[in-house]
């Protein structure tokens, strides 16, 4: 009798150990409250999204059409022209920069954004002589556009500049992934401010709280 109990206990121990070591897939997950929270469908920015549609997840990594993030500005209203067409590029001349004149702080940030993203080609002086060209000694053989000093670009409307920065033009690629819509308009404000007749930054409003005037009645002697 004692040996039978020992054998039975041994078999139970083996079965439990085998069950504990079973790492195979669970065919029946059981009942879960809010499964979307239990099993996250979070998507990493640079992850492979090719299998999402098969899983019933429709994600194209772009904002919902017509939406604007908090603190942002509306997307550029014109779509990119089809190959061989220039209708929207021409129409972009009528698009007005939606940002008001920049104050000194915002203009400094716009200048920084220009130097980081545009200066390598167009130069810090906006003369088309950035490090990539370097007076003809750089790695790029063709001189980039001269934003200050060339009437073509000095007379180019802000909307048409925005079209080019958003979608790319000729040998310049799109900067829509590097700069938000608001940042692109800020950079264009900076470029226009550097051109002849450009609007210089406005003084920042003084938000310092001032003491209230003393309205108490003073005793007279």
UniProtKB/TrEMBL annotation:
Does the keyword section mention Metal-binding?
A: yes
Q: What top-level branch of life does the organism fall under?
A: Bacteria
Keywords for the protein's UniProt record, in alphabetical order: Heme, Iron, Metal-binding, Signal
Coiled-coil portions: none
- The signal sequence is 1-20
A single GO molecular-function term is:
heme binding
InterPro entries given in the database record: Cyt_c-like_dom, Cyt_c-like_dom_sf
Under PANTHER family, the record lists: LIPOPROTEIN-RELATED, QUINOL:CYTOCHROME C OXIDOREDUCTASE MEMBRANE PROTEIN
Protein name as catalogued: Cbb3-type cytochrome c oxidase subunit III
State the organism named in the record. Lacibacter cauensis
